[in-house]
From TrEMBL:
InterPro entries (UniProt xref): Bact_Transport_Assoc, DUF418, HGSNAT_cat
Domain DUF418, first and last residues per copy: 290-386
Leader peptide range in chain numbering: none
Pfam families: DUF418, HGSNAT_cat
Superkingdom of this protein's organism: Bacteria
PANTHER family xrefs: HYPOTHETICAL MEMBRANE SPANNING PROTEIN, INNER MEMBRANE PROTEIN
Chain segments annotated as transmembrane: 68-87, 99-117, 123-140, 147-168, 188-212, 224-245, 294-315, 322-346, 352-373
Keywords, ordered alphabetically: Membrane, Transmembrane, Transmembrane helix
Residues in Heparan-alpha-glucosaminide N-acetyltransferase catalytic domain copies: 26-225
Protein name as it appears in the record: Putative membrane protein YeiB
Length: 406
């Protein structure tokens, strides 16, 4: 059985329990999508600048910016619904307790990882908050979840501007008594409002993923409709933002000037910190956390999930060939923590010579490790510890024979 979750094993769902081989392809497709997000994360954190490589490679690296993290968050919502019961909740009290415990564990683990002081904005504590905030939505219908995602995407970016108008002394007082902030310097103000992945905006991805989890992703008709919706969201997000920013307003010129000035000063222009209110609400740049970026990113996530699920269903040979990559998606928490530790304690570029070589080494190493590990164990190392800590069986059963994923 291949298990999957955004950060650690979350949904104990087998292909047989979900309705046979078609659903099995869907489950493997979700792990494949998550593996692509892992590789995209590596590209963003250790890979070369998209502008420094050839055209096609540059486009691929550029596509990973912001979208890989958004894909993770969308898959998190999907997995939460599968844990609660795709059609209706199963054993609700135990399931809710396990999700809540995992949220708390991820909040603590993420805080500890943040304390390492890497240059990476650690997403794990945000996931802990996402899990806890998602609890009231676990049994909503797909349509209600989709509407909730739309509302959060529209309202969240405006609410995220609150630190601009709240008196600074109020924020400082809250931060002074925030235990998470005292430990890592990234407390609940960051996790909810002002950080790299603020829950007030990023819950839109989680809710959208939960809506996907309520749908029959094994249905060809559903996949066609979702593919259309994903493409439409991409156009509505990135396309409309481009028109508004570059044709109907002067925001594009403002951002270009700010970026040029920052580059001349040897720094980076971050629109959410340095841009005008209009820029903070209208652009669709990576990690701008605007409605337009969120809509476009959800569209990309839907297209990736649908394409991966369809491919795993339609191409049995691809299941065999992609098994090592699928295994990476099944142990994404292990991959994430491992890559943070390497970034913190190993000067990989010093030994390997270039960001491209570092990226290739990261991808190959985690793929080989995951492929070997998955032949013997159902869960990754950290996924198993998270499973046990949240009330699972205290043993790590062997992974089934390779034929189970072919």
């Amino acid at each position: 059985m291949m298990e999957f979750a955004p950060v650690g094993e979350l949904a104990e769902v087998t292909a047989a329990e979900q309705g046979g081989s078609s659903s099995g392809g869907r489950i493997l497709g979700i792990d494949l999508a998550r593996a692509l997000a892992v590789f995209g994360m590596f590209a963003v954190h250790v890979g070369p600048d998209p502008e420094s490589v050839s055209r096609l490679a540059g486009v691929v690296l550029w596509l990973a910016q912001g979208r890989s993290a958004a894909l993770f968050a969308t898959l998190a919502g999907l997995s939460l619904v599968l844990l609660a019961g795709r059609v209706r909740p199963v054993d609700s009290r135990r399931r809710v307790r396990r999700v809540a415990v995992r949220g708390g564990i991820l909040l603590v683990l993420g805080t500890l990882l943040t304390m390492l002081g890497t240059p990476i904005s650690v997403i794990i504590p945000y996931y802990g908050v996402f899990f806890l905030l998602a609890l009231p939505f676990l049994w909503w219908r797909a349509s209600a979840l989709a509407v909730a995602a739309l509302v959060v995407a529209a309202v969240g970016p405006v609410v995220a501007l609150a630190p601009m108008v709240i008196p600074g002394e109020w924020l400082d007082t809250f931060a002074a008594y925030d235990p998470v902030n005292m430990m890592s310097g990234r407390g609940f103000i960051d996790l909810l409002l002002a950080g790299a992945f603020p829950a007030v905006s990023w819950m839109a991805y989680v809710l959208a993923g939960m809506a996907l989890g309520r749908m029959d992703l094994a249905s060809t008709a559903a996949r066609v409709r979702l593919a259309g919706a994903g493409a439409g969201l991409c156009l509505a997000g990135y396309g409309v933002s481009w028109l508004v920013v570059n044709v109907f307003t002067g925001v594009g010129a403002e951002v270009a000037q700010g970026s040029a000035a920052a580059a001349a000063a040897g720094s980076e222009y971050i629109v959410q910190d340095q841009g005008s209110v209009a820029a903070r609400l209208l652009v669709a740049l990576p990690h701008s956390n605007t409605f337009f970026e969120i809509a476009g990113n959800i569209g990309v996530a839907i297209l990736v999930i649908v394409a991966a699920s369809a491919a795993m269903d339609a191409l049995p040979r691809l299941r065999r060939l992609a098994a090592p990559v699928v295994a990476v998606g099944a142990m994404s928490l292990t991959a994430y923590v491992a890559h943070l530790l390497v970034i913190r304690f190993v000067e990989a570029e010093r030994y390997l010579g270039s960001p491209t070589a570092v990226l290739v080494a990261f991808v190959l190493t985690i793929t080989v490790f995951a492929a070997v590990w998955s032949r013997f164990f159902r869960r990754g190392p950290l996924e198993y510890l998270l499973y046990v800590a949240s009330g699972g069986r205290r043993r790590a059963p062997r992974h089934p024979a390779p034929a189970a994923v072919s």
